[in-house]
From TrEMBL:
The keyword ATP-binding does not apply. Keywords: NAD, NADP, Oxidoreductase, Signal. Pfam families: adh_short. This is Dehydrogenase/reductase SDR family member 7C. It comes from Menura novaehollandiae. It comes from the Eukaryota. Belongs to the short-chain dehydrogenases/reductases (SDR) family. The keyword Glycosyltransferase does not apply. GO terms for molecular function: oxidoreductase activity, acting on the CH-OH group of donors, NAD or NADP as acceptor. GO terms for biological process: intracellular calcium ion homeostasis.
Amino acid sequence: TYAPKLILLDISDINCIRDVAKEILNCYGCVDILINNASMKVKGAVQSISLELDKKIMDANYFGPITLTKAILPNMISRRTGQIVLINSIQGKIGIPFRAAYAASKHAAVGFFDCLRAEMEEFDISVSTVNPTFICSYHRQSAPGNWEASIWK
């Protein structure tokens, strides 16, 4: 058994993910199960959400999980074992009004992990995607017109 080690990671900060994955692998030698369960969302009309905020949501919900997965994957492939899980959203399958950036990022993640599942079969690495319906999560109520402050984490 291993003593737990707390490693902080901002999944939307793509530049630090590889270093964190390296730290984990150096500490424990391998990752048997990787559960990608971080998300960021914002509610608002397409024309009201800035492109910068769209990109931030895409970083957290798409590029973050795939960057972490790609950093851990070579170790799993070399061991020919492992399990990768994406906790996604039903909005990765259907879009609803006022959630365009969120739904787009979740659709992209589903596509990536569906492809990954097929590619990893030969290495006996299991890839699963879970698409729950709506859940309660931490939310900061924003002032009207302050979309940056309305991000859900």
